[in-house]
Design goal:
86% helix; mainly alpha
Length: 133
């Protein structure tokens, strides 16, 4: 049963013989109707609130676990990058040391062999230029 309040009728009754008794009666009717609605709605609201809290707790746990796994993965990646950076730096330093060392003197035999190979290659180059001309 839905409650309806007719203000114009209420005002006429207040001005009439009943006066404040009519207003008090209407307020009591409103009070009963509100209590009935509260009794009907509060359990549903409580259930929905519990469901929402359950979902929220589940999401919170999921986010926290994913956050932990992400942080672990980031830590592992950073340590790996640092290790690789150190290794690359060592290789670079070793390469630079090798390049800055003075050239070792070659033996006379090796020097003669290099000169001989250069002489052998030179006539071939001359022949190729004569053919082109």
């Amino acid at each position: 049963m839905a409650y309806s309040l007719d203000f114009s009728k209420l005002i006429k009754e207040v001005r009439g013989p009943k006066g404040m008794a009519a207003v008090t009666e209407e307020i009591n009717k409103l009070k009963v109707e509100i209590e009935r609605l509260r009794a009907k709605v509060e359990p549903q609201v409580g259930q929905k609130l519990k469901q929402a809290q359950g979902r929220l707790n589940g999401l919170k746990k999921t986010v926290e676990s994913r956050q932990k796994s992400l942080e672990k993965e980031v830590r592992n990646t950073l340590t790996l990058v640092k290790k690789r950076a150190v290794a690359a730096e060592k290789k670079l330093e070793a390469t630079l040391k090798r390049q800055t060392k003075p050239a070792t003197k070659t033996s006379k035999k090796a020097a003669k062999a290099v000169k001989a190979s250069m002489k052998k290659a030179a006539p071939k180059a001359r022949k190729a230029t004569k053919k082109q001309a």
